[in-house]
Design brief:
There is one protein chain. The chain folds into 2 domains: 5-163, Ribosomal Protein S5, domain 2 (2-Layer Sandwich); 169-273, GHMP kinase, C-terminal domain (Alpha-Beta Plaits, 2-Layer Sandwich), CATH 3.30.70.890. 30% of the residues lie in helices and 26% in strands. It contains 10 helices and 10 strands. The protein has helices at residues 66-75, 106-121, 128-136, 142-147, 181-186, 199-203, 212-218, 220-230, 251-260, 277-282, and strands at residues 5-20, 26-46, 51-53, 89-95, 151-154, 159-162, 169-173, 235-237, 244-248, 267-273. Helix 1 (66-75) packs parallel to helix 2. The model has no long low-confidence stretch (mean pLDDT 95). Bound molecules: 4-diphosphocytidyl-2-C-methyl-D-erythritol and adenosine-5'-triphosphate. The site of adenosine-5'-triphosphate has 20 residues, from helix 1 and helix 2. Its EC number is 2.7.1.148.
């Protein structure tokens, strides 16, 4: 039996933009938590150096898939052991559950799980800091998935402090639009002047996402989903969208609201967790 490696979703429980760098990247303050829901991957090492994704992703060229990019990046590391002078290779299967371009970090999580799993299966011996440094070159969200602890992120998202927000239940809904992260960050209307605050200060305020008003204005479906959910519970956008989430103290309350969603709304219920399901698996929990 080939092992299934989880690639969980993340939520940005809050997200503030505190400035813009000269290269266009933004300074953020955001709180990441994982969901016990996501994609899963399987890996079968091969010894001919080939990286083969056996489950292609519609609309994403294999060479552009972050899973393949992550495997190739690790394969090029000097610590990687050769077998009869050939680099290690791998067959990869992806069971995709997370919507793409949804703000749930699916692509980043798939890539992080690939780095963590292949580091183990190929016995590369990279430590967590080395994997996180490698990962950030593929996307700002990879380090948090590699480290696997809920975290307060600052800088452009790479400076992480472990955090323990309450582990609520969430109803996540998926507007059927794909939101481009660069388009939201490039918008002249984006609020970029939130004050820099401490985690304690931010935890004491109602949570908020500075990207939300732009996503609501630009995408009618995001507006519709949020207006509907807000009648039932505190609800927000995750990342730059398109997905939104409503928070509840119990699974039963979240499922009760899911049952009442109109036909045009699709979503799922998941538990917010401060230790990533990937890391729970690795520690044998
Ligand atoms: C906003 C978040 O979703 C919060 O979780 C992420 O930081 C975005 O992470 P991501 O999708 O992995 O983003 P990346 O692939 O690193 O960057 C995509 C694009 O978003 C913009 N971007 C991203 C992160 C950041 N701190 N400032 C930015 O302006 C840049 O235009 C960049 O070209
Ligand atoms: N394995 C992958 N899974 C999903 N998307 C991928 C993958 N590899 C490459 N991509 C590309 O990355 C884009 C963003 O995908 P992703 O699902 O990570 O977005 P997201 O959830 O909005 O991420 P974030 O919250 O980090 O902005 C997709 O539109 C797709 O073109």
């Amino acid at each position: 039996m080939i092992r299934q490696w989880p690639a969980p979703a993340k939520l940005n429980l809050f997200l503030y933009i505190t400035g813009r760098r000269d290269d266009g990247y933004h300074h953020l303050q955001t709180l990441f938590q994982f969901l016990d829901y996501g994609d899963s991957l399987s890996f079968a090492p091969r010894n001919d150096g080939k990286i083969c994704l056996l489950t292609a992703l519609a609309g994403v060229d294999d060479e552009e898939n972050l899973i393949v990019k992550a495997a190739r990046l690790l394969q090029r590391q000097p610590k990687v052991k050769r077998n009869n002078r050939s680099l290690p290779g791998v067959d990869i299967w992806l069971d995709k559950k997370l919507p793409m371009g949804g703000g749930l970090g699916g692509g980043s999580s798939d890539a992080a799980t690939t780095l963590v799993a292949l580091n183990h299966l190929w016995q590369c011996g990279l430590d967590e800091d080395q994997l996180a440094d490698l990962g950030v070159s593929l996307g700002a969200d990879l380090p948090v998935f590699i480290r696997g602890r809920a975290a307060f992120a600052e800088g452009i998202g790479e400076r992480l402090t472990p955090a323990s927000p309450p582990e609520k239940w969430y109803l996540v809904t998926v507007p059927s639009v794909s939101v481009s992260t660069p388009a939201i960050f490039g918008s002249p209307a984006l609020k970029r002047d939130s004050p820099v605050r401490t985690l304690d200060q931010l935890m004491a305020l109602p949570f908020h996402n500075d990207c939300e008003s732009i996503a609501r204005n630009r995408f009618y479906e995001v507006e519709q989903h949020l207006s509907w959910l807000l009648e039932y519970a505190p609800s927000r956008l995750t990342g730059t969208g398109a997905c939104v989430f409503a928070e509840f103290d119990t699974e039963a309350e979240a499922r009760h609201v899911l049952e009442q969603t109109p036909a045009w709304m699709h979503g799922f219920v998941a538990h917010g967790v401060n230790v990533s399901p990937l890391h729970r698996m690795l520690s044998g929990v």
